[in-house]
Amino acid sequence: MRRSILAALLGAQAAAGAAAPGKASLEFLRLDIGPRQVGMGQAGVALGGDPYAAAYNPALLASLRSRELAVSHVEWLPGIRYQDYLYAHPTRAGSFGARLQRLDYGEIAAYDAVGARSGQVTASDLLAGFGYARRFFDPGVSLGASAKLARESLAGVAAQAWAFDLGASWTPRAGPLPPGTTCGLAARNVGPSVRFDHGSAPLPLDVAVGASAPLFEDSLSLALDLHLPGLRAPRANAGAEYRVAETVTLRAGVEVPQAEGPGLRAGIGFRLRAVRVDYAFSPMGALGHTHHMGLSIPFGGASEAAHQRGLALLRQGQYDDAILKFNEALTLDPRNVEANRMLRRAYELLRRHQEPDKP
Q1: Cα separation of 298 and 5, whole Å?
Q2: Between the CA atoms of 253, 259, 262 and 265, what dihedral angle is there, to the nearest 10 degrees?
Q3: What's the topology of domain 303-354?
Q4: Where are the domains of the chain?
Q5: H-helix or E-strand containing 185?
Q6: Rounded to an integer, what distance in angstroms lies between the CA atom of residue 353 and that of residue 344?
Q7: Which residues have a Cβ under 8 Å from the Cβ of 293 and sit 6 or more positions away?
Q8: pTM score > 0.90 for this model?
Q9: What is the spatial distance between Cα 340 and Cα 62, in angstroms, rounded to a whole number?
Q10: 157-179 residue pLDDT tens
Q11: N or C: which terminal CB in the chain sees fewer CB atoms within 10 Å?
Q12: What is the pLDDT of residues 111-123, one digit of tens each?
């Protein structure tokens, strides 16, 4: 029963021929995929640093320092699950990304026009997409776009359409905001209405703004999103992550309003050398719980290793050694914008540390 309810919530309209009046089509395009973002209340419009970020704001592809592969698996209710495969490839000409998603509902109870059960049907959703982002105008400004081909099928009837995401991000280089603060703007699922056998329905458009800020030498990060989804009420997402050790990060967040459940989210992340393993938990009231699991593998080589070592030294207060490591990362890869930012941060912290105490 719960599986049938969830399938209806996601909008398997193909069997009926069109979405109901006032309803969007291809609702699975709203799904959140990043375990880090989900653990932080699904706030991701300005939260860069991994391939999942591009699904929330394509401009955040430009925040990646190295090639990276990410795989996520979501266990929803028994028999309902979906997987995402994402790849990001930064180059001198900009950052490119690719994504593949499949959602499988398993077998769903079918009912005829008078409500009598008529056996089982299968349903699935598929998405394939690619994106591009680049820094423009100023080193702190990025623009991005992605195209997605989405296909939804139920009981042998299918519908598909192209959807587009557009985004921008800005990381101020100076000013009163904490260093590393990022602001984001994204419009997701832009495109024409989807045609079905007996009509059409709009895509699940979502326009959002967000901000994120690292605090206390990057040991704490905060994120906040405000969404204006088409045909739905506005919502807010907020979350935080706290690094309790060099290899462990705790996350928590909230979404309001939440259609099912309290809207709370929680997660944890582990870093094993350069590899990241993430998990997030979402209670959904009567529908049960969802479990998000993800694995991210960067291919940054020596520059990324030096950058990560510099971050560790910075958090330990060893500013001189951190400066050396960030310089090493920039020598190996002069395009490593994040290493350049952290180098300036290390110099700033060193200067503060060396200033004599004022009476």
Answers
A1: 38
A2: -30
A3: 1.25.40
A4: 2-235, 303-354
A5: strand 182-190
A6: 14
A7: 35, 72, 73, 74, 75, 278, 279
A8: no
A9: 15
A10: 788 899 999 999 998 877 788 88
A11: C
A12: 766 666 777 777 8
